[in-house]
């Protein structure tokens, strides 16, 4: 498996946080896998968090159950956000979050350019492969988050 794939949960994951989830796998290596739930919005917007109270309203997605104390993001605007790690030809993980927020607040970046997550999904090495093999996840033929 490689980063940049999309997974859809199947019935063995019903009644869990992953029920009806679509995951974007942002990292996959010998340490394990990291991904984000891309189809579930967090109940609060970015401007409802104290640190960002003076910017415009912008959605946050529930990225996953791990480390819900931090924000993560993926985007497709390396021309506006420096330092992102390429995941696919057009999707980047992270980068300069301050410039991303500034560009959101100035209406330069939209929901079609960037997704912000609270928390992430994590798997140990080969754990996600095992879950796919056992039928908990279906690989989707998708190319973009946006």
Could you name the ranges where pLDDT drops below 50 across 5 or more consecutive residues? none
Question: Quick one: biggest sheet?
Answer: 10 strands, mixed
Task: Give the total of domains.
Answer: 1
CATH homologous superfamily placement: VC0467-like
**Terminal residue distance:** 22 Å
Q: Based on helices, strands and strand pairing, what is the structural class?
A: mainly beta
Radius of gyration of CA atoms, rounded to a whole number: 15 Å
Broad shape: globular
The DSSP helix count reads 2
SSE string, helices as H and strands as E: EEEEEEEEHEHE
Query: What fraction strand?
Result: 35-45%
Q: Please, could you describe this protein's structure?
A:
The structure is a single chain. By secondary structure, this protein is mainly β. The protein has a single domain, classed as 3-Layer(aba) Sandwich (VC0467-like), CATH 3.40.1740. The chain is 11% helix and 38% strand. The chain contains two helices and ten strands. Strands 1, 2, 3, 4, 5, 6, 7, 8, 9 and 10 form a ten-stranded mixed sheet that branches. The longest helix has 9 residues. The protein starts with 5 loop residues before the first strand and ends in a 6-residue tail after the last strand.
């Amino acid at each position: 498996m490689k980063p940049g794939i999309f997974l859809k949960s199947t019935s063995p994951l019903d009644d869990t946080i992953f029920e009806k989830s679509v995951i974007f796998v942002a990292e996959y290596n010998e340490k394990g896998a990291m991904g984000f739930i891309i189809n579930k919005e967090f109940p609060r917007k970015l401007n409802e968090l104290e640190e960002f109270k003076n910017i415009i309203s912008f959605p946050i997605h529930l990225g996953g159950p791990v480390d819900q104390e931090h924000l993560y993001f993926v985007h497709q605007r390396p021309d506006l956000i420096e330092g992102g790690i390429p995941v696919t030809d057009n999707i980047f993980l992270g980068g300069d979050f301050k410039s991303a927020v500034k560009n959101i607040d100035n209406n330069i970046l939209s929901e079609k350019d960037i997704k912000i997550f609270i928390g992430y999904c994590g798997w140990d090495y080969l754990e996600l492969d095992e879950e796919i093999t056992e039928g908990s996840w279906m690989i989707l033929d998708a190319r973009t988050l946006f």
